[in-house]
Specification:
Distance between the termini: 59 Å
Strand content: over 45%
Number of strands: 28
Strand order of the largest sheet: 1-28-27-26
Order of helices and strands: HEEEEEEEEEEEEEEEEEEEEEEEEEEEEH
Number of helices: 2
Structural class: mainly beta
Largest sheet: 4 strands, antiparallel
Helix content: under 10%
CATH topology: Methylamine Dehydrogenase, Chain H
Radius of gyration: 20 Å
């Protein structure tokens, strides 16, 4: 599976580390829509903005092709000279991703709904991939060790404060997040936020490693590894961190954020699941058939990813998570009030 952005790999690695066991918890009552490109052997949905999703599918020859779907019409995205391609980000009608040219070199592309733009076209033998688009900007990586932001005309270079190049994972406007290697031999990852001019290091308190994966506004989500090598999700709101661990989880990674909505994957005693977190409660996301599920992104209350029995056969999906009911909100308020009450005599003062 050729995936120079690392996005699908990181999601799939989480699936592998979780064991991809058949989930047995009941999923929340939600609308589950399968996304299958006509005639494809597998379909992977990796990104969403509003009603538009994008990703890739395997054609009859097993070649990866970028596509977009607006809920009714599928469109294959084939930049000029592309031998294979994948879409990794969408912002309105703008879709970004990468393609391999005839020399096998990866090139970043932007599709505006009618025409393609290849980024860094004057770099002979150069390497570039676009990973995300948001707020009118495109982010990605190019060359040997640099990240970039592109506003449609000008490029801004993002250099790593550590060893090697930065792994840019996403952006919202001029704010871009990712991680870089540090340590004696580059074996430790640290997170960062780049605002177009300066870099802010993102290190979850006491974490062995921190991996930001996505940003929405000033909300950054990702994965932090504790000293015992256990994985947790996290949210950073610009000033403080919140650990995200669904009840009973033994492994968690947050991969997407939209406003205050966070999505990702976790494992518990019953198996592996996706999750949707609204800041108060976790909603478990499972496939209807109880097969493997990989969550990749979110827009509002719509979650995307892919699922299947394994063995290289996958279908994309869109899950619409219902808004909390009045009864649910009332119950949550009651729990909050109960936890806010003083608890006397539970622990004796020394």
């Amino acid at each position: 599976m050729h995936d120079p952005t690392g996005l699908r790999v990181r999601a799939f690695q989480a699936c592998v580390m979780l064991g991809c066991l058949a989930p047995q918890l009941q999923a929340a009552v939600a609308s589950f829509t399968s996304v299958d490109f006509p005639g494809a052997s597998s379909t992977f949905v990796t990104t969403i903005d509003g009603n538009r999703v994008a990703g890739s599918y395997r054609d009859g020859n097993g070649v990866s092709r970028a596509f977009t779907w607006d809920g009714s019409t599928y469109t294959t995205l084939t930049p000029p000279g592309a031998t294979r391609s994948e879409a990794t980000g969408v912002d309105g009608n703008r879709v970004v991703g990468w393609y391999d040219d005839s020399a096998g070199q990866s090139r970043a592309f932007v599709w505006n709904g009618s025409a393609y733009t290849t980024l860094f076209p004057g770099t002979p033998g150069g390497y570039s991939v676009a990973v995300d688009a948001g707020g009118g900007y495109v982010s990605g990586r190019f060359g040997v060790s640099s990240g970039f932001l592109w506003d449609g005309v000008n490029y801004r270079t993002i250099n790593s404060p550590g060893i090697g190049g930065p792994s840019i994972m996403g952006n919202d406007g001029t704010n871009a997040v990712g991680y870089y290697a540090t340590g004696p031999s580059g074996q430790i990852s640290r997170g960062f936020l780049w605002n177009g001019q300066t870099t802010t290091l993102l290190d979850y308190p006491l974490a062995a490693e921190t991996h930001p994966n996505a940003i929405s506004g000033m909300n950054v989500v990702g994965q932090w590894i504790d000293p015992l090598q256990k994985s947790h999700g996290f949210l950073w709101n610009g000033s403080s961190y919140t650990s995200i661990d669904p009840p009973g989880s033994t492994y968690t990674v947050a991969v997407g954020v939209s406003g205050n909505h966070v999505v990702g994957q976790f494992a518990d005693a019953a198996g592996q699941h996706g999750f949707f977190w609204d800041g108060t409660q976790h909603t478990v996301l499972d496939s209807p058939a109880g097969t493997q599920i990989v969550v990749t992104g979110v827009s509002g209350n719509r979650v995307v990813g892919f699922y299947g029995p394994g063995g290289g056969v996958w279908s994309g999906f869109v899950i619409t998570v219902p808004e909390p009911t009045a009864a649910t909100l009332l119950a949550a308020s009651a729990v909050a009030i109960a936890h806010s009450r003083p608890r006397r005599n539970r622990i004796k003062n020394p």
